[in-house]
Amino acid sequence: MRSFKWIRLPVAILITGVILLLLDYALYPCTFIRNDIHAVTTETFDDIYMGTSHGKICIDPDAAGEISGRTGHNLCVGGEYPQDCIHLLDLIIETGHKPKRIIYEISPGYLVREKEEGNNYLLFYHEFPMSRAKLSYFMDAVAKCDFRTLFFPWYEYPISYELEKLPQTVRMKWNKDYSAEQFRTDAQVYYSSGFIGRHPVDPSTLTMEGLTPSPVSGIVPGNMENLRKLAQRCREEEIEFCAVTTPVPIPNLQAFAKDYNEVWAYLKEFFEKEQIPWLNFNDQEHFALFTHDITAFTDMDGHMNEDAARAFSRVLAGQL
After folding, report:
1. Closest by alpha carbon to 302, among 230, 219, 224, 244?
2. pTM value?
C-alpha cells in the first residue's frame, strides 16, 4: 500500500502532462509561423530574411530572386526581436539547412522596447521541433515569462476562435498540412515564400493615429547586443550578414524627422563599427531608389501594398 501511494504522484503528473499536450494539440491554432518554421527546417535557401512586420509585408523573396537568381524565405514577423533571430538561426543550422546569407530588416520601433509578455514569446518557440536550439531558446527567454504561456500556450487566443478552428487545427496537424491558402483574408495573402502581400487601400483613409517617435534615448541596449550577437553568429558560421531598413512614408518621416535622423546616425555608427553592410532606404544615399509616396503603402507606418512590395524587393535585390 505504501509503495502504491508513492506511484500516485508521478502518475498524476504524467496524466496532467498528457492532458496539457492534447489541449495544446487541439487548441493552439495553426499559424503561418508554423509554415515558416517548417520551410526553413526542411529546405535550404540562399537567403533568409529576418526582422519585423515591415520585412514580412515589404519583402517578397520570389520577386527578389527574379533579379538575384537566389532562393529565399521570409522569416520576418511582427514581434520578432534579435533575441528570437539568434535561436531561429541556431535551429536552421542544427537541422542542416544553413543559408548563404541572412538579411536582417531593422525597424527603429523595435529598438526602443522590450520583447512583450504573452503569446509573443511563443510565436516561434511553440513551432520549434525538439532540438538543442529549442532548449536554449527556453532557457534564454521562455522560462522567464508568465507560467500560463508555458503550460497553457493557447490562453491568449479567444476560446470562441479556438473552438471554431478546432476541427481544422486538428486535421492540419494530423495530416501535416502546411498549405498557404488558409491564411488568405480580405486584406492580405500569405505566400509559401513567407511573404504577406497586402491589398491596396485608399490613401485618403490613412492617418498618423497610433504612431509614436522612436528616440535614440529610448534604445534598449539588450536589443543592440543581441543584434551584435546575431551578426557574430553568422560570421562564425561563414554566413553573410547584412541589414536593411525599408522605406517610410513621407508624412511619417516629416512628422518625426528629428528622431529618425538621430536613429539613422546611431545605426550608421553601430553598423560601421560592427562592419555590417546596411541599406537604409530613408537616408540621403538611398532615398531616391524607391518611392516614399503614401500611395505605395497600406498605412503610415510603412507597410507596403503587394505590388509596391514586389517592386521594392527587386530594387533591394539589385542593391544587395
Report:
1. 244
2. 0.91
